[in-house]
## 1
Amino acid sequence: MSILVTGGAGYIGSHTVVELLNMGKDVVIVDNLSNSSILVLDRIKEITGKRPEFYQIDISNKELLRNVFEKEKIEAVIHFAGFKAVDESVKYPVMYYENNIMSTLSLIEIMTEYDVKKIVFSSSATVYGINNPSPLVEEMPTSATNPYGYTKVMLEQILKDVYVADSDWSIALLRYFNPIGAHESGMIGENPLGIPNNLMPFIAQVAIGKRQELSVFGNDYDTVDGTGVRDYIHVVDLAFGHIKALEKISESKKVHIYNLGSGVGTSVLELIKTFEVENKIQIPYKIVPRRAGDVAICFANADKALNELNWKTTKTIADMCRDTWNWQSKNPNGYRQS
Ligand code: NAD
Ligand code: UD1
């Protein structure tokens, strides 16, 4: 029996596939490569010695997806596939609703057809919206401020409704905080196309000389040094969170909701400083006005994942900064050759 990983060629998916293969699981990846590279498969093979089955398909195509379920024996699904850029979702809302919602609906339909009723879903801390105070706990009300966020709020609701209709399903909704870092081998990592929106990929591109300087979005927040505070989590810790969630949904049929974060906040300036110290590289930056839609502080209460999954983060901000630079310096153009 195999684990089907949608979006398994992407950033978080590829790191999770590595850990699944390391544990001896059989893995089938489905990905349309809209935001990833086929070269990831070679890298996964180099790290683990194993090559996962791979189907280059769009998961909203039910016929093609059905074909995968027909050929493979799937026991559970980890569902990463989707678009994830907030700004882009504001510009192209229909594209976001279509890709994120429709593809998940077709996935649920085909899973139901083949009686595969275990799914781990990539949600996001973005579902806490802008009104809940940190530390954020799973029981807080959810909301969104942009189409990307709404897709996560809606998909959580859709999956809860699927469970209400049929309690044979077992579902984990994992609310990631801010994933950064890369596999310690430097073989796989985050590979943003165009100008990065997120802080760490931007820092990494300044470090490699692709961008001149970082813009720090506001230093007048009510935080330790005035800059925004977030809960950064190493992508390999995050990958292990998925393994624990898979075990959980196999043990008990329910909708399980977990924050996957460290429970600790780090400011923009603290992250820059740690990156500079760990990698001995200067990161030139300037302070610019706040970015619309940003909250001052966002970090998890991570107790539920600790108590119920026996999972917690193990890697430090220094590890995240070193591993990001290891990946970026070995792959200046990501998976592209030039
Ligand atoms: P990513 O873009 O690197 O990976 C997503 C993968 O899905 C890509 O390989 C892409 O080609 C594929 N894909 C997209 N639409 C598809 C479709 N219709 N059919 C088949 N494949 C498709 O993103 P990531 O950072 O690895 O994020 C994975 C998931 O986690 C996403 O759902 C994202 O919203 C969520 N998430 C990410 C973050 C983050 O900061 N990276 C934070 C919270 C939640
Ligand atoms: C952003 C998204 C969020 C998404 C998350 C993970 C917005 C408004 N929010 O969150 O929905 O779930 O990414 O993909 O886009 N910063 C700078 N300069 C930069 C980039 C960021 O100062 O060039 C600051 C931000 O103001 C913030 C911190 O760095 O304080 C982290 O930003 P980012 O990496 O974009 O993550 P989030 O804001 O948490």
## 2
Amino acid sequence: MCGIVGYIGGQTAVDILIDGLTQLEYRGYDSAGVAVLGPSGARRVRSLGRVRDLEAALPKRLAGKTGIGHTRWATHGAPSEANAHPHTDATERIFVVHNGIIDNARDLRVELEADGVELTSDTDTEAVAHLIARSGADTLEDAVRQTLHRLSGTYALAVIDIEHPDRIVVARNGSPLIIGVGDKEMFVASDISAVVRHTSQVVHLDDGECATVTASGFRMFSADDARAVAKSATTVDISPDELELGNHSHFMLKEIAEQPQSLERMLSGRLDERFATARLDGLNLDAQALRRFKRVKILGCGSAYYMGQMGAAMIEELARIPADAEPASEFRYRNPIVEPDTLYVAVSQSGETADTAFAVQEVKRKGGTIVGLVNVVGSTIAREVSGGIYLHAGPEVSVASTKANTHMAVGFALMALALGRVRDLSITDGTRIVKALKALPAQIAEITAMPEEIDRAAKLLAEAPSLFFVGRVRGYPTAREGAQKFKEISYRHAEAYQTSELKHGPLALISPELPTVAIVPEDELLDRNVGALHEIGARGGEIVAITNPGVDVPEAKVVLTVPKSEPELDPILLMIPTQLLAYYAALSLGLNIDRPRNLAKSVTVE
Ligand code: F6R
């Protein structure tokens, strides 16, 4: 989604803004812009396209030590220079960048036009700039607060004013915003990655909070009544190197390759071999509390939802508690029944997905217990939940999520182990799972070392306009995530089915033109799976099988084998080749792998 950057301090603002916007591009964008307050007033430059197009449009000298910048993902109004942020008022005094959606923008625009204001864009944000400029308040802070009272919807806003070049005023309601604290310089951003090169000290705004940011510090206050809010900075643990490509061709490949190390880090200190369980102190739930839950309900979106399905299967098997996953985007709209003895789990890489954050609030509002599996420390969802498991995957830049998904699946395995061991999971079975978890990083390293075979299979699949991913029971979430990854970056129609469902309809589509990726773990369903694949082969369908060593899938054109784990954890390893299949297919098609069309990394609007 859109990205915000702001700078105030001793350096040339535009340089910091462009650098920050470049870091934010992965969130999705169609246009970008900056506004800088300099010795000769304000200067705004906007452009359609990427940040490098904006950079090319900048004048040679753009002095000024206070500025704001934005990368836009069109919501109100098509991508165009006129709709790009920053937006300004009629006198070009106030400049505003905004993430989120102002729901009553249409009414506000009608009202402004009735008052004779000439609107120059189709956006909701422009109304905000006019309202601030026309508020008549004595201070910029009051003008912003008064305007916020007129808005309904979601926003992260950064505002500068020619008459107050010594400050940036920011506000948050429902869209992420942080302040980066430097030495005699301050930063504003919608995402830590935009400031991490300059400072590791950040302050997270909460909904309903505003701040005045100057070169020497910040002052937080409530949007409601201007009351001062006490907040201090926390340290973020991301090194700028983690945001670099290094010698990898794409972030997606880098992130797939990082999984063995990142998983070692995630597991470190969390496995208790003596009691054959997982140490999850961050859940803030002791053994008695964990025993109290009769059900588990997992909420997430997209790939996080599929990982929730994988997690629910692990929890049911290992802890024998009924568990299921539901898209948070659906849950939030259906007046869900929230039960006191259900453990709700929100799962999110970014911790900023609006649908998931809203679902968390809905559970809390109805008195439910909700914990999180979140990657980004200090993110909105991480701060909303009562406890959780940080995924520690490190930054994920590629829009298509890979390593964060694997960490989610492993996070659920840890949760299933902990829930199981306070119930009926024996120490022998607990030990079996602990050992298997410890082996995962090295096993994943074996898989990521076999790109040639995967590349060959990927090329075969990339030629087809449409394909199936099939798996059953434990393997079905792997198939769903495999199809999701494939369609996201190769733009090929990929659909997942339970292998068992093929004969109930989808088999009609099987032909030499429609290949199938089959998830075939060596487990108690192996014979049935292989049997279903015969039916595909008999109809001329080509098969890429992802299976374990020693399994014979006679119908398969390509067989990709992954090391065997315990049956409950096999789906995690079987997923890794699907990440690589998607990558190599998109590579062979010459597509923009890290920034697929129409998608954004972090979906902070509805
Ligand atoms: C797929 C993908 C999306 C996200 C979804 C949720 O590769 O990245 O489907 O999984 O938008 O995002 P998070 O996990 O940040 O809540």
